[in-house]
Design brief:
Strand content: 15-25%
Helix content: 40-55%
Shape: globular
Order of helices and strands: EHEHEHHEHHHEHEHHEEE
Strand order of the largest sheet: 1-4-3-2-5-6
CATH architecture of the largest domain: 3-Layer(aba) Sandwich
Structural class: alpha/beta
Distance between the termini: 37 Å
Number of domains: 2
Radius of gyration: 19 Å
């Protein structure tokens, strides 16, 4: 496995493989890797001849400077994990390499980016689009892999690829959870032991709502989740929305569409966590 810091070096390495008609898979990450990331990496390794994993904490997608400052950075441990998973290249650039000058591009993904995370974190998805498009241009992958825990992000990246007419496949991969149900997240390591235990209520409530939804209306299900979360000391609910899984717009009834997802964001203490659950999905 080779660790690369410069775009020019990365392109030169990949061009050799591309000349031999080798396929390239990309897994973009911000590091602090966990089993969820590794599940993406393993799929990329299985489906491509060459696998690139980027490790870059992107400043333009943070609208909270303290969040950026406190985001965990564990490059040495990340590289050890990635090497054992069979990765060929780790791309770990400095900020100056990705942003030699300010990126002034403004993206619009309306209405996908005007709700949920887009409403709560102004500018977040513009920053995501800036860095992910830069990575796509640098790597020119055949496939790129993203986790469904960031459900809204996945939809927006697919829309960005369509808008920019990029020739690559976006592969969405299922949420990976701890054995006790907590969705894996790099932010979990910032939770205290007490907060970590409390955070289990998030996934537990979502899974309970699956059963509740079978006999109740959408609005009653939404209230069920909100009331359970709001009752927890130390939680601050930002949103729980039940949406059309394609448009991300809120729906009123279970029969409004054939792909229904419940998306949640909340603060557990000072740590912001997200999760989602699928109520209806066409297989």
């Amino acid at each position: 496995m080779k660790i690369i810091r410069l775009i020019s070096e990365l392109r030169a390495e990949l061009e050799q493989g591309r000349a031999l008609s080798k396929t390239i898979g990309l897994v973009p990450t911000m590091g602090a890797l966990h089993s969820g990331h590794i599940s993406l990496v393993e799929r990329a390794v299985a489906e491509n001849d060459i696998t690139v994993v980027s490790v870059f904490v992107n400043p333009t997608q943070f609208n909270d400077k303290n969040d950026l400052k406190n985001y965990p950075r564990t490059l040495d441990a990340d590289c050890a994990l990635l090497e054992s998973a069979g990765v060929d290249y780790v791309f770990a650039p400095e900020v100056e390499e990705m942003y030699p000058k300010p990126d002034t591009r403004i993206f619009s993904f309306a209405p996908l980016d005007t709700v949920m995370e887009g409403a709560c974190r102004p500018g977040h998805f513009n920053g995501v689009a800036q860095i992910v498009s830069k990575l796509f241009y640098a790597v020119e992958p055949d496939r790129a892999y993203f986790g469904e825990k960031d459900f809204q992000q996945l939809a927006i990246i697919r829309e960005m690829v369509a808008q920019l007419e990029l020739k690559l496949e976006i592969v969405g991969c299922p949420i990976v959870r701890e054995s006790d149900g907590l969705a894996l997240s790099s932010r979990n390591m910032l939770l205290t032991e007490e907060e970590r235990t409390r955070a289990l209520i998030i996934s537990r409530t979502l899974f309970e709502s699956l059963e509740f939804a079978k006999e109740n209306t959408l609005q009653a299900t939404k209230s069920f989740v909100e009331e359970k979360i709001n009752a927890v000391d130390g939680f601050k609910l930002e949103y729980f929305q039940i949406v059309n899984g394609r448009t991300l717009q809120q729906i009123d009834n279970w029969d409004d569409c054939d792909y229904v997802v419940g998306c949640i964001a909340l603060f557990c203490g000072k740590i912001r966590l997200i999760d989602n659950i699928k109520y209806k999905e066409v297989k």
